[in-house]
């Protein structure tokens, strides 16, 4: 009788060990599969990040923040570029607060009931600015030069401009 109990316990133990082995193997296989999936996703994400960083570098090429020569130009004249560049941009945005129909820098008159407003501005270097404008229905872009006079006042000069044709 005692030997049969030991035999049943032995068989039960073997079955329990086999069950634990199979279960553990399935869990480890699942984890390995998940890890390989995540490694693939991580590699794809790193590739996407590298592509976006390269694209961002290219897009920032014509931007004053990436142009050491333009920043050095202002620093050599004693200006703090961290304050000057936002002042240049704010000066153009401040032109959106105008009375009447004529925008101070945009050479068009709004063809809708709303005012023409400058939306986006990109300071290219120490002399040039590109900006776009809209009245909500019509869009255009302007190319400006700017300078700082002896009284440290910003002066903007319109060089080129265009209005996109309305597509019906």
Number of H- or I-type helical stretches: 3
Strand content: 15-25%
Q: State the share of residues found in helices, binned by percent.
A: 40-55%
Q: What best-fitting shape do the alpha-carbon axes yield? A: elongated
Radius of gyration: 34 Å
How confident is the prediction overall: mean pLDDT?
Answer: 91
Strand tally: 4
Largest sheet, strands/sense/barrel: 4 strands, antiparallel
Low-confidence stretches: none
**Cα-to-Cα separation, first versus last residue:** 97 Å
Number of structural domains = 2
Strands of the widest sheet, in order across it, are: 1-2-3-4
Class from secondary-structure proportions: alpha+beta
Order of helices and strands: HHHEEEE
Question: Any overview of this molecule?
Answer:
The chain has 168 residues and is α+β, with helices and mostly antiparallel strands. It folds into 2 domains: 1-59; 64-163, no CATH class. It is 48% helix and 20% strand. The protein has 3 helices and 4 strands. It has helices at 2-59, 68-76, 81-94, and strands at residues 117-123, 128-134, 139-148, 154-163. A 4-stranded antiparallel beta sheet has the order 1-2-3-4, covered by helices on one side. The longest helix is centred in the first third of the chain and has 58 residues, at 2-59. The mean pLDDT is 91.
